[in-house]
């Protein structure tokens, strides 16, 4: 019985992961108008797009992994942007 419950959880669409990735990418884009040129954001958007395609064909675990990686790329960009901003403030 427990095995069935666990396997059912594993096959659910990764809706929360997809939402988290979208929100993180959107937050990153708000930080910098030139963000579209960032390799990290381009990679994040590519991964999110691939996750969406995988969800359409019920490849939920692969979609989940892509969404998590997309969010990670966006977070790394945000961290980089913050460090750049802090470096600029220290020069003042």
Can you characterise this structure?
By secondary structure, the protein is mainly α. It has one domain. It is built from 4 helices and no strands. The chain has helices at 2-10, 15-31, 39-56, 60-91. Helix 2 (15-31) packs antiparallel against helix 3 and helix 3 (39-56) packs antiparallel against helix 4 (60-91). 25% of the residues are buried. The model has no long low-confidence stretch (mean pLDDT 86).
Give the termini separation: 63 Å
C-alpha-based Rg, rounded: 16 Å
The coarse overall form would be elongated
The mean pLDDT is: 86
What is the share of helical residues?
over 70%
Q: How is the secondary structure organized here?
A:
Layout: H1 2-10, H2 15-31, H3 39-56, H4 60-91
Helix pairs in contact: 2-3, 2-4, 3-4
Index terms:
single chain; 92 residues; mainly alpha; 0% strand
Short description:
The protein has 92 residues and is mostly helical. It has four helices and no strands.
């Amino acid at each position: 019985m427990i095995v069935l419950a666990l396997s059912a959880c594993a096959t659910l669409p990764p809706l929360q992961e997809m939402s988290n990735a979208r929100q993180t990418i959107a937050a990153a884009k708000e930080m910098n108008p030139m963000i579209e040129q960032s390799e990290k954001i381009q990679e994040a958007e590519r991964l999110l797009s691939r996750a969406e395609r995988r969800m359409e064909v019920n490849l939920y675990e692969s979609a989940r992994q892509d969404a998590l990686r997309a969010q990670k790329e966006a977070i790394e960009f945000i961290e980089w942007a913050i460090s750049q901003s802090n470096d600029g403030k220290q020069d003042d």
